[in-house]
Amino acid sequence: MATKPEPEHYAVRHSDALAYMTSDSPSGFLVESEIAMLGRLGRGRSRKARILGRIAAVLLLLPILLGIVLQVLQMI
User: Fold this and answer.
1) Distances from the Cα of 45 to the Cαs of 2, 42, 50, 55, 75, in angstroms?
2) What is the pLDDT of residue 51?
3) Residue 46 lies in a domain
4) If 0-12 CB within 10 Å is exposed, 13-18 middle and 19+ buried, where does residue 41 land?
5) Does residue 49 belong to any structural domain of this protein?
6) Helix %, strand %, coil % for the chain, to 5?
7) Structural domains in the chain (count)
8) For each of the chain's 76 residues, which pLDDT tens digit applies?
9) Which residues make Cβ contacts (< 8 Å) with residue 1, sequence separation at least 6?
């Protein structure tokens, strides 16, 4: 069975993480990894620590999410 070739950015992401994160091309993988961080914060600790960790993560993600919304609104 033939496989689809991997996109160029996929190889860059796995070979040199720093170059990938600081590259000029925007990537959805960065936002996905930031959102995945929400589920890992405070794991194994008390309920209060998990809730506070998730609130902190949301506050850290807020500028990214607002930037995305503003860009979408500018395109409309």
Assistant:
1) 46, 6, 7, 15, 43
2) 79
3) yes
4) middle
5) yes
6) 70, 0, 30
7) 1
8) 456 555 555 554 555 555 655 555 555 566 666 666 666 665 666 888 777 877 887 888 888 889 889 998 998 8
9) none
CA 8 and chain centroid, separation:
19
Q: Give φ, ψ of 59 to 5 degrees.
A: -65, -35
Domain containing 71 equals 8-75
Q: Which two tokens stand for residue 6?
A: 């991997």
- Which pTM was predicted? 0.39
Residue type, 9: H
Domain-located, residue 1: no
Q: Is residue 66 part of a domain?
A: yes
